[in-house]
Structures are given as structure tokens and as C-alpha cells.
Specification:
A hairpin with an 8-residue loop joins strand 1 and strand 2. Strands 1, 2, 3, 4, 5, 6, 8, 9, 10, 11 and 13 form an eleven-stranded antiparallel β-sheet that branches. The protein is 20% helix and 33% strand. The two termini are 20 Å apart. By secondary structure, it is of the alpha+beta class. It contains five helices and 13 strands. It has one domain.
């Protein structure tokens, strides 16, 4: 899959923007700079696509998260994606739109590109002030996960505030992101698709 990801990485859509770290809240801008390859850009025999569609993996994720039944995102573009963070790229602090993410690290950045998160912020009474403290570097215990090639991680990015720190040395960080939800037929918004993939409708393969 690392070879496949390396072959796909040049066709990724380059997203570079400032975005609000708080959904539907007061604007706190964080930077997103990365390239994204959607599932609709992967060939039918793609090992990446086949792993995402493998039913035992979906059941495993649901069992680990104690969410049964659990469902793969039905989004034809964003449900299964490859992200590429090269030197100078980062994914600033944010929350996810759905409640289950599985990542598979295929290639670590030469330096930087660390996954960092702060738990128990979204439901806190001082939600916005807690976010502000993280953004200025004074947010208490920021956890960092040591993702190495082959690391499969399960994460609820809807609840935890998280980011990927800036990549400062090549090679690029290559990681797969598989999306799941407690409800069937979960789709990402047109805004999310346009932002990260440069299109709303899937490509015809």
C-alpha cells in the first residue's frame, strides 16, 4: 500500500486555507495545507480501497469503539482518502465532522508531522476558552501519538481537539484516513468536499 500511496500522491488536490477551528462557533483560524486523494481517484483493484471496504475491519472498529452496528461512511470521495503532507504542510487544530476515524500510517515525515490532541474539551463548560488556551500553546496536557509506518489508529476526532504539526523535513507524511459513523449513509458536506478535493461530485472511473 505504501507503493500505491506514493503513486497516487502526485494527483492529490492541494488544499491551502485558513479555517475555523470551532464548528459553528466564534472564528479561531487555523491553517490547513495538505494534498488529498479521494476514493474516487483510486482504481477498483486498489488495495487501499479493498481494505476500507473489508467488512471484518468495519466490525472490528465498531467492536473496539463499542458502537454496534457501526457503518463505513458512504461518501464516494471523502470516506476513504490518502493525505499527503510535504515540507511546510500542516493540519491545524480542529474537530472532525463525524464520530469515527481510522488512520493507517504508511510513511512518516522526515521531521515534524506529529499527531497531537487534547481530550475532553468539546463537552467542557469552558469550551471556547479551553480552545483558546490550546491555540496559544497553554492548553494543558497536549498528547502526542508516535505514529510509525504500519500503525493503525482509532480516533474520535469529533470529541477531541487535534492537529498534525508542521512537516519540516522530507520525505512527506503519507497516511490513510477511513471514516465511520454510528448512523448509516453518512456523507460529508459539499463544503468539505470542495475544500479538500476541489470538487463536489465524484469522478467517473
Amino acid at each position: 500500500m505504501q507503493v500505491e500511496a506514493s503513486q497516487l500522491s502526485p494527483i492529490g488536490f492541494k488544499c491551502q486555507e485558513m479555517r475555523n477551528a470551532i464548528p459553528a462557533g466564534k472564528c479561531r483560524e487555523t491553517r490547513a495545507s495538505l494534498a488529498c486523494v479521494g476514493m474516487d481517484q483510486m482504481p477498483a483493484d486498489s488495495a487501499i480501497r479493498q481494505l476500507f471496504l473489508w467488512e471484518p475491519l468495519t466490525r472490528f472498529v465498531g467492536a473496539v469503539l463499542d458502537r454496534m452496528p457501526y457503518y463505513r461512511s458512504a461518501d464516494p470521495i471523502a470516506s476513504c482518502m490518502l493525505t499527503v503532507l510535504d515540507v511546510g504542510d500542516e493540519l491545524g487544530w480542529h474537530f472532525d465532522a463525524n464520530d469515527g476515524i481510522v488512520t493507517l500510517m504508511l510513511q512518516s515525515a522526515g521531521r515534524g508531522g506529529a499527531f497531537e490532541y487534547v481530550s475532553e474539551i468539546r463537552d467542557s463548560r469552558e469550551f471556547e476558552s479551553s480552545v483558546d488556551q490550546v491555540l496559544v500553546g497553554n492548553g494543558g496536557p497536549v498528547c502526542q501519538s508516535d505514529y510509525r509506518p504500519g500503525t493503525l489508529a482509532l480516533f474520535n476526532g469529533y470529541q477531541a481537539f487535534h492537529r498534525v504539526s508542521p512537516v519540516t523535513r522530507s520525505p512527506a507524511r503519507l497516511i490513510l484516513i477511513f471514516s465511520y459513523d454510528s448512523k448509516p449513509d453518512q456523507y460529508f458536506s459539499d463544503e468539505v468536499r470542495q475544500r479538500f478535493f476541489g470538487r463536489i461530485e465524484p469522478l467517473d472511473n
